[in-house]
Write a structure and sequence with these properties.
Blueprint: E1 7-8, E2 11-12, H1 29-50, E3 53-57, H2 72-81, E4 86-88, E5 94-96, E6 99-106, E7 109-114, H3 128-139, E8 154-161, E9 164-169, H4 176-179, H5 195-200, E10 208-212, E11 218-223, E12 236-240, H6 244-252, E13 258-260, H7 268-272, E14 277-292, H8 302-311, H9 314-321, E15 326-328, H10 351-361, E16 368-375, H11 378-392, E17 396-403, H12 405-413, E18 419-424, H13 432-437, H14 460-471, H15 475-492, E19 495-508, E20 511-512, E21 529-530
Parallel strand pairs: 3-12, 3-13, 16-17, 16-18
Antiparallel strand pairs: 1-2, 4-5, 6-7, 7-9, 8-9, 10-11, 11-12, 13-19, 14-18, 14-19, 15-19, 20-21
Helix pairs in contact: 8-10, 14-15
C-alpha cells in the first residue's frame, strides 16, 4: 500500500498500483518511454476519479474572494477556504465561527473575541489585525468590492490586541453579526494590488486550501492541515456542469458523488428509484413569490391583489410542480426562523371570495388582462403557466412572458412589468423585509437601479418599524418588531409569498457525512468520507 505518494502535476504517481504491460527489450527507447508515459497518465486519470470526493455545481464561480463574490456558488465555495467571524446556523442565527464570542456593548459598538490558536492555511496565525485589514479593504474604493456600499455603515475597525476586534458603526445595525461572516484574509493579501491573485487562490483559515483553479470549470481543494477543527478526510473537486441532465448522468455513473442544490423537483421521483443514490429533502431558506407592481393601475387596487392571493393554489404547486419539495409560504421568513410570526394572517384558496373581490374592484365587470414576466428557465416557466391556469379560473387572463435574466431584472428594476415570479435566496436575517418592502429600497436612476423593492410598494408605518428593527441589537426586541412588520405585509400584499422551496441533495450511497444545509452551505463536505 502506498503511504507517501509523490505528486506530479497533481497526480498521485506514488500510489499507482496498476501492473504495466511487459515491454520487449527490443522496443526502441523513444517508443518504450512513450508507452510508460501513456500508462502513467491513464493511471493518474483513474486515481483522480476515485481518490477524491467530487461534487458538481451548475455555474462557474466568478471568484473565490468573498470580498468580490456575488453569485451563490462563489459564496458557497469561498466559505470552504475563507470562513468569517460568524456563520449562519440552521435557524438563521449568526453564531461564532472564527470568533469565540461577540457582543454589542452599545448600539454602535460590537466586540469580537477571536478563538486562540487559529492559523491560516499557510501556517501563519490569524490575528485581529487580519480581520481589521479585511474589512478595511472592502471599504477601500481601490478594491472595487461590490459590497462596499453594504458595509458603509462601518465607521472603523480596531484591533486593540491580537485576539480582540472592535467594530464601530456609523449607525445602529442589529444584523451586524450576519455581515461579520465576511471571509477573513491575511493582512498582506488584502492589498487591492493583489486582488487578481486572491481571486484564484485565496488563503484562509477554512477546512480547505485551493490546490488548483484557473478560473475555469474545475476547482481542486486539498485538506487544510492547519484547520482548527482538524483537516477533512477527503480532498475535494468541484466541477461545473451547466446542463442538469449531464449532472444527473455524471452522478449516476459515479463520476460525481453529490449534487447539493440546483436540482429540478420534477426529477425527484426518478432519482428516488435509483438504489445507489440517496435523496434528501430538507427545509430550505429560499422563498419564491409573485411580485405586484403597485404603480400599475390594476394591481394598485388592493382588491385585485387579494383576489389573486385567494385564487392561487399554492398547495397544488407544492404537490405537483415541486413533488412535495416545498411548503406554502405566508411570509418571506420560514416557519422555525427565529423572527417568524406564527400568527401571521394567511390567504387560503377561495375562488368564490376571489371573484367577489374582483367585482368590488370592477363593478362593471371589465375584463382583466395581466402580463406575468418570468425567466427562461423551463421549470420557472412551467410554474408561471400553472399560475396562469389558476388565475383563469376566476376570470383573470394572464399572458406569460419569458425573458433572459438580464432583461427580466432590467424591466423589474425600472417598473416595466405587472406581475413577475422571483425567488429570494437565501433568506437569513429578517432585515430582508427592509430590502424587499421599505420605500427607500425602491430602485431609482439615482441609486443606480439598486434596491429590492421592485414592486414600488410604500407604507410609512412599515418603513418606521423596519428601520427601528434594523437598529435594535436585542434579539427579542427585533423579533417583536418583525412580527408587527409581517402582519402589515400580509395585510397589504406588496407581493404574494408562494413557497418555501426545500433544499435538495442527491448523494451517492458510497459517501457518508454530507448534510443538506438550509442556506445551501457546503460546510458538511469537510466531514464527509467515501466508504468504498
Amino acid at each position: 500500500m502506498c503511504t507517501r505518494p509523490t505528486l506530479v502535476e497533481g497526480c498521485s504517481v506514488g500510489c499507482w498500483t496498476a501492473h504495466p504491460a511487459r515491454i520487449p527489450s527490443s522496443t526502441p527507447m523513444p517508443l518504450r518511454l512513450a508507452i510508460v508515459l501513456v500508462t502513467l497518465v491513464a493511471s493518474c486519470t483513474r486515481d483522480d476519479v476515485h481518490d477524491r470526493l467530487t461534487i458538481a455545481i451548475e455555474s462557474v464561480p466568478e471568484t473565490l474572494d468573498r470580498r468580490m463574490a456575488l453569485s451563490q456558488n462563489a459564496m458557497r465555495v469561498a466559505q470552504l477556504v475563507t470562513p468569517g467571524l460568524t456563520r449562519i446556523d440552521e435557524d438563521g442565527r449568526a453564531v461564532p465561527d472564527l470568533a469565540l464570542a461577540f457582543e454589542a456593548v452599545d448600539d454602535r459598538t460590537w466586540i469580537f473575541k477571536l478563538r486562540p490558536g487559529i492559523f491560516f492555511s499557510d501556517g501563519s496565525p490569524l490575528r485581529a489585525r487580519d480581520v481589521r485589514a479585511t474589512f478595511h479593504s472592502v471599504l477601500d474604493p481601490a478594491l472595487g468590492s461590490p459590497h462596499r456600499g453594504g458595509y458603509s455603515y462601518i465607521a472603523d475597525v480596531e484591533a486593540p490586541d491580537e485576539l480582540t476586534v472592535v467594530f464601530r458603526l456609523r449607525e445602529p445595525f442589529g444584523a451586524f453579526p450576519v455581515d461579520a461572516g465576511l471571509g477573513i484574509l491575511p493582512e498582506r493579501l488584502t492589498d487591492p494590488a493583489r486582488r487578481d491573485e486572491v481571486r484564484l487562490r485565496p488563503i484562509g483559515a477554512g477546512p480547505y486550501v485551493v490546490e488548483h483553479w484557473d478560473g475555469e470549470s474545475e476547482i481542486r481543494l486539498a485538506p487544510n492541515a492547519h484547520y482548527h477543527l482538524g483537516p477533512p478526510r477527503e480532498a475535494l473537486t468541484i466541477r461545473t456542469v451547466r446542463d442538469e441532465t449531464t449532472r444527473i448522468l455524471e452522478l449516476r455513473k459515479g463520476r460525481v458523488h453529490a449534487l447539493l442544490g440546483a436540482i429540478t423537483p420534477a426529477l425527484l421521483p426518478g432519482l428516488r428509484r435509483l438504489d445507489h443514490l440517496e435523496v434528501t429533502v430538507a427545509p430550505g431558506a429560499g422563498v419564491s413569490y409573485l411580485l405586484f407592481n403597485h404603480e400599475d393601475p390594476i394591481l394598485a387596487r388592493r382588491e385585485v391583489r387579494e383576489a389573486i392571493a385567494l385564487a392561487v393554489d399554492r398547495e397544488a404547486l407544492a404537490r405537483h410542480k415541486f413533488k412535495g419539495a416545498a411548503r406554502v409560504a405566508h411570509s418571506l421568513l420560514r416557519e422555525g426562523h427565529w423572527a417568524y410570526a406564527p400568527d401571521v394572517p394567511t390567504w387560503e384558496r377561495d375562488l368564490d371570495e376571489a371573484r367577489a373581490r374582483l367585482r368590488q374592484a370592477f363593478p362593471g365587470g371589465e375584463p382583466i388582462r395581466l402580463t406575468l414576466k418570468t425567466s427562461t428557465d423551463r421549470f420557472r416557466r412551467s410554474v408561471a403557466l400553472a399560475l396562469k391556469a389558476q388565475l383563469a379560473e376566476v376570470g383573470i387572463d394572464v399572458v406569460v412572458q419569458s425573458l433572459e435574466w438580464g432583461t427580466l431584472m432590467g424591466d423589474l428594476k425600472r417598473g416595466n412589468f405587472q406581475l413577475a415570479t422571483l425567488k429570494w435566496t437565501p433568506v437569513i436575517d429578517p432585515d430582508i423585509l427592509r430590502l424587499a418592502y421599505h420605500s427607500g429600497s425602491i430602485p431609482t436612476a439615482e441609486s443606480g437601479w439598486g434596491g429590492g423593492n421592485r414592486g414600488r410598494y410604500r407604507n410609512p408605518e412599515l418603513d418606521a418599524i423596519l428601520m427601528e428593527a434594523r437598529q435594535r441589537s436585542d434579539l427579542e426586541e427585533r423579533r417583536a418588531l418583525y412580527v408587527r412588520a409581517q402582519h402589515i405585509v400580509a395585510h397589504d400584499l406588496p407581493a404574494l409569498p408562494l413557497l418555501h422551496e426545500e433544499s435538495i441533495g442527491v448523494v451517492s450511497r458510497s459517501v457518508r457525512g454530507i448534510r443538506v444545509d438550509p442556506q445551501g452551505s457546503l460546510r458538511s463536505l469537510a466531514q464527509a468520507w467515501r466508504v468504498q
